[in-house]
């Protein structure tokens, strides 16, 4: 049996751990515990609940209103991992500077970033958004159409990214990707990037943006871009979306060509 003196000696250590990790405990509560409880109570998925909120609080055909409703839901109701408004503004700036005509998004999830990208595209541009989860894709489809974007602007592809990327040229007629946004499984960042390199769809100046490279993190992806010499790159440091105190970052890569 542990003596009271030994137990008391551990109290400062326990308090230190609680203080240092408090933001992670909050995230665990919001992202996991609240989700499990509301899944049981409502019988709906978190993504379906988010869509219902957006449907009743946003203006159809107004992308800004859609995004604002999403931001309120994610910050005040339930946590959903999207790019969020702070990193979203960095993405907006990149898109405005690049004015890409052909964009690939890997990881549609609920359609938040899909809408954010689509609203910043120039006239005549097209966004191909890839989502492997059929239930999430169904929600994303509703959000995208609610925002006012049709199939000519946004094409939603429901399949795993490693099955879609090799067919982008043959089935979708793509010759070049001007802009790629990655926000799917972090373990897929590196193999999907290498697969894109192999397709020949990345040209000099093509931009790749990858979210959450610091948290949850994509260390193999970051090591590769440091060493391969194919990209000019930097990491935009920020905090995790809809959270405080958790450091994150978004990688920006500009393809320089195969050497």
Would you spell out the secondary-structure blueprint of this structure?
Elements: H1 4-20, H2 22-42, H3 46-57, H4 63-77, H5 84-98, E1 102-106, H6 112-119, E2 126-131, H7 134-146, E3 154-158, H8 161-164, E4 177-182, H9 189-199, E5 202-210, H10 213-217, H11 219-228, E6 231-239, E7 247-255
Helix pairs in contact: 3-4, 3-7, 4-6, 5-6, 9-11
Rough outline = globular
Can you write the helix and strand succession as a string?
HHHHHEHEHEHEHEHHEE
The count of strands amounts to: 7
How much of the polypeptide forms β-strand, as a percent range? 15-25%
Please state how the strands of the largest beta sheet are arranged side by side: 3-2-1-4-5-7-6
Helical fraction:
40-55%
Which regions contain 5 or more consecutive residues with pLDDT less than 50?
Answer: none
The helix-and-strand class reads alpha/beta
Q: Please report the distance between the alpha carbons of the first and last residues.
A: 66 Å
Count of separate DSSP helical elements: 11
Major beta-sheet overview: 7 strands, mixed
Verbal overview:
Keywords: Catecholamine metabolism, Endoplasmic reticulum, Hearing, Membrane, Methyltransferase, Neurotransmitter degradation, S-adenosyl-L-methionine, Transferase, Transmembrane, Transmembrane helix. Its EC number is 2.1.1.6. One of its GO terms (cellular component) is endoplasmic reticulum. The chain crosses the membrane at residues 6-29. 51% of the residues lie in helices and 19% in strands. It has helices at 4-20, 22-42, 46-57, 63-77, 84-98, 112-119, 134-146, 161-164, 189-199, 213-217, 219-228, and strands at 102-106, 126-131, 154-158, 177-182, 202-210, 231-239, 247-255. The mean pLDDT is 92. Helix 7 links the parallel strand 2 and strand 3 (154-158). Helix 3 packs parallel to helix 7 (134-146) and helix 4 (63-77) packs antiparallel against helix 6 (112-119). It has 259 residues and is an alpha/beta fold. A seven-stranded mixed β-sheet has the order 3-2-1-4-5-7-6, with helices on both faces.
């Amino acid at each position: 049996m542990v003596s009271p003196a030994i137990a008391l000696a551990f109290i400062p250590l326990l308090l230190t751990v609680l203080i240092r990790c408090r933001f992670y405990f909050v995230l665990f509560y919001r992202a996991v515990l609240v989700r499990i409880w509301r899944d049981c109570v409502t019988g709906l998925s978190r993504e379906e609940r988010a869509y219902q909120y957006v449907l009743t609080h946003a203006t159809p055909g107004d992308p800004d209103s859609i995004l604002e409703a999403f931001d309120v839901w994610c910050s005040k109701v339930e946590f959903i991992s999207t790019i969020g408004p702070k990193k979203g503004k960095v993405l907006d700036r990149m898109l405005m500077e690049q004015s890409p005509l052909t964009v690939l998004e890997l990881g549609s999830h609920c359609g938040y970033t899909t809408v954010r990208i689509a609203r910043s595209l120039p006239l005549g541009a097209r966004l191909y958004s890839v989502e492997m989860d059929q239930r999430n894709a169904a929600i994303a489809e509703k959000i995208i159409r609610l925002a006012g974007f049709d199939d000519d602007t946004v094409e939603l592809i429901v399949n795993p990214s490693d099955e879609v990327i090799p067919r982008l040229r043959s089935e979708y007629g793509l010759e070049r990707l001007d802009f790629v946004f990655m926000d799917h499984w972090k373990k897929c960042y590196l193999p999907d990037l290498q697969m894109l390199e192999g397709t020949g769809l990345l040209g000099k100046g093509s931009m790749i943006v990858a979210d959450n490279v610091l948290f949850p993190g994509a260390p193999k992806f970051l090591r590769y871009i440091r060493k391969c010499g194919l990209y000019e790159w930097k990491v935009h440091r920020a905090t995790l979306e809809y959270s405080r105190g958790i450091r994150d970052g978004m990688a920006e890569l500009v393809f320089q060509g195969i050497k």
